[in-house]
Specification:
13 helices, two-stranded antiparallel sheet, mainly alpha, 2 domains
Length: about 220
């Protein structure tokens, strides 16, 4: 357990560095939109999701659209949680608490293949990322760098590039590549008619390729 946890912290350090930079961008943008430092920091402490928090900003202060967008974007955590569930331990409450460590980078880092996850590796990766996210938000909201500086330094593209790197590491083989291509095609098509949050949820249709593979394995 100790080795897995420490391995997770090493992986999480790189994820935390990218998260810190994005959190600075969130904090600065929140301040520019009139959020108080306390509001921005509490949002990062409780929500701890870049996609959901930026969705709140994009809603421009309208409560219902903001909550709806955040729920749609974070809908990906439902299948992720179901996937990692069998690898958690204890009763319902304990498993629910452990499930709070399910964030994108940690989930990928903990994946062992075959539907198995190293929960201690996931815990270690998240334990590093959460304080970095909160600290980055505090730096951004308190120093409030200008949007022009954020764009000049390229801070607004750090996380998309980070997720692209994660994707490239996962699409080894025909089936993962097909799933990624299907998800990208579905998202691109939906963007013509629906908001980005819904398109993102629709992109999870690519995961149906995995169900096809599972049924083939069972039949064999």
């Amino acid at each position: 357990m100790r080795q897995s946890f420490l391995g997770g912290t090493r992986v999480g350090a790189g994820l935390a560095a990218a998260g810190f930079v994005l959190a600075v961008t969130f904090g600065a943008t929140a301040r520019d939109q009139g959020w108080s430092p306390l509001e921005a920091i509490v949002a990062s402490v409780l929500i701890f999701s870049g996609s959901a928090q930026f969705a709140l900003l994009a809603a421009g202060g309208a409560a219902l659209p903001a909550v709806a967008a955040a729920l749609l974007i974070n809908g990906r955590f439902l299948p992720m949680g179901l996937a990692v569930g069998p690898s958690l331990s204890g009763g319902r409450i304990r498993r629910a608490l452990q499930g709070q460590a399910v964030v994108d980078g940690s989930w990928v880092a903990a994946h062992l293949g075959g539907g198995r996850f190293d929960r201690w590796r996931m815990f270690g990766a998240t334990a590093v990322q959460w304080p970095a996210w909160v600290a980055g938000t505090a730096v951004g909201v308190l120093t409030a760098p200008s949007p022009h500086l954020v764009e000049t330094l390229g801070l607004d593209v750090v996380f998309p590039a980070f997720f692209l790197a994660l994707l490239l590491g996962e699409v080894r083989g025909r089936r993962p590549l097909t799933a990624a291509g299907l998800g990208a095609a579905v998202a691109a098509g939906l963007l013509w008619w629906v908001p980005a949050g819904i398109a993102l949820v629709g992109a999870t249709a690519g995961a149906l390729i995995g169900l096809t593979g599972r049924s083939e394995e069972v039949t064999a």
